[in-house]
Amino acid sequence: MAAPAVEATAATALRSVILRARKAAERVGRDPERVRVVAVSKTKPVALIRQIYDAGHRCFGENYVQEFIDKAPQLPEDIEWHFVGHLQSNKAKTLLAGVPNLAMVHGVDGQKVANHLDRAVSSLGRHPLKVLVQVNTSGEVSKSGVEPSSVVELARHVNMHCPNLVFSGLMTIGMPDYTSTPENFRTLTNCRAEVCKALGMSEDQFELSMGMSRDFEQAIEMGSTNVRVGSTIFGPRDYSKKST
């Protein structure tokens, strides 16, 4: 179990992050209610997640399928779960079956995974799943995501050929040392404009998932609707507990 002192610290940190997010939105005249703080709880114990839940938060994100399907059933059903990052196509149905209250996937990076998710939603008979297309805005070879020049093509595929998915916007993961900030945010907002024009979507209803612990305020100021904050809330990661 998580120690009480750690739990109290995490709840306090959460309140601070939410306040900072609201202020960032207000600085640029945005509605703070349009910004979602996804508390990324990968490698963190269920007891610590429950403490954040008990503090009133409902939106959580996980990165590893096996860890996710182990933890989700131990937590309340009204949590709004988000899967963040690269998802292997062969794990799409396992994820959806194991997390019935999965609200959104941040990280569709190709037609294959989109098709697998679409079929999994259909076979499980669940309501349509919101997805964000992942864009490689930093140009790193090791990074998942489509190139900016291919975003419209993948977004159109999801929108037209995956009836059980709801194409909701775009996401990006910047460089680990944050040196790609804010250029990666600018690239993603440019991609949003292109996709909205191509698909006839309104930018006001378009989701952007960008910004993490060290740059989420800047991301909000540049239009992010989902900021993925982990270590600032939960403390440093213990990757020895990672499961794929």
UniProtKB/TrEMBL annotation:
It comes from Brassica carinata. Keywords: Pyridoxal phosphate. This is Pyridoxal phosphate homeostasis protein. It holds the Pfam family Ala_racemase_N. Residues 24-237 form the Alanine racemase N-terminal domain. PANTHER family: PROLINE SYNTHETASE CO-TRANSCRIBED BACTERIAL HOMOLOG PROTEIN, PYRIDOXAL PHOSPHATE HOMEOSTASIS PROTEIN. One of its GO terms (molecular function) is pyridoxal phosphate binding. Signal peptide: none annotated. Transmembrane segments: none annotated. Its cofactor is pyridoxal 5'-phosphate. Belongs to the pyridoxal phosphate-binding protein YggS/PROSC family. Pyridoxal 5'-phosphate (PLP)-binding protein, which may be involved in intracellular homeostatic regulation of pyridoxal 5'-phosphate (PLP), the active form of vitamin B6. The modification N6-(pyridoxal phosphate)lysine is found at residue 42. The keyword Plastid does not apply.
